[in-house]
Write a structure and sequence with these properties.
There is one protein chain. By secondary structure, the protein is mainly alpha-helical. It has one domain. The chain has 5 helices and no strands. Helix 2 runs antiparallel to helix 3 and helix 2 packs across helix 4. The mean pLDDT is about 75.
């Protein structure tokens, strides 16, 4: 018997190899991270839970420093406002004093004319010869003129009554303002008494002048 060649074996049917799916691979899930709390109380609570006393101390120090700095900024702003108001008061005080000085000079000049007329009237009363009637009447009218110097106290009184006197940092200046207001008030009271006396004397002299006119007529 002759050996026959064996027929080639048929390839065995096997399952096809899987092909990789098309498209990008899904990213791996990142490990979860705890979010840091943004509020102060949240950070303190977390530090307390973790018993992280250093973090608690740092947070408290930051808060205290913030409060102190806030107070300092507020105080600095208030001091700056006080200095601005102090300068405004000082300028107004200087203006009031200058106006008071001007009124006093004007009153002195006006009263000097009346004093000269009164002097002429007194001299005429002692003279041997009678002075002209028109001159006597003119001297009399001028001698009865009265000009009062009223101090300007608006700013000084406002400082005393409102308590803003503490804005003036100079102790001697505060004392001077208080003394000036008190002295000016006493002067105004005295001027009121002198004014009443002047009006009474003026009325008597006016009646005397009327009698002289009637007698000479």
């Amino acid at each position: 018997m002759t050996d026959r060649p064996l027929p080639p074996e048929a390839p065995s049917a096997s399952a096809p190899e899987p092909t990789p799916a098309s498209g990008p691979l899904a990213p791996e899930a990142a490990p979860s991270r705890q979010r840091r709390p943004w509020t102060f109380l949240g950070r303190i609570a977390r530090a307390l839970r973790e018993q992280n006393w250093a973090a608690v101390a740092v947070e408290l120090v930051i808060v205290v420093l913030g409060i102190v700095i806030g107070f300092q900024v507020t105080a600095w702003g208030q001091q700056r406002a006080n200095r601005t108001q102090e300068l405004a008061y000082l300028r107004q005080l200087a203006a009031d004093l200058a106006e008071t000085e001007r009124l006093a000079d004007q009153s002195t000049a006006d009263n000097a004319s009346g004093d000269r007329a009164l002097t002429r009237l007194i001299q005429a009363s002692y003279a041997r010869r009678l002075a002209p009637r028109d001159s006597v009447l003119r001297w009399f009218r001028r001698s009865t003129a009265l000009s009062e110097a009223v101090p300007v106290l608006g700013t000084a009184e406002a400082l005393v009554t409102t308590g803003d006197l503490v804005l003036l940092r100079d102790d001697s200046l505060r004392s001077a303002v208080t003394a000036y207001v008190e002295a000016s008030r006493r002067l105004l009271d005295q001027q009121g008494d002198l004014r009443a006396l002047w009006f009474e004397s003026h009325e008597r002299m006016r009646r005397l002048d009327d009698r002289l006119r009637d007698h000479r007529a």
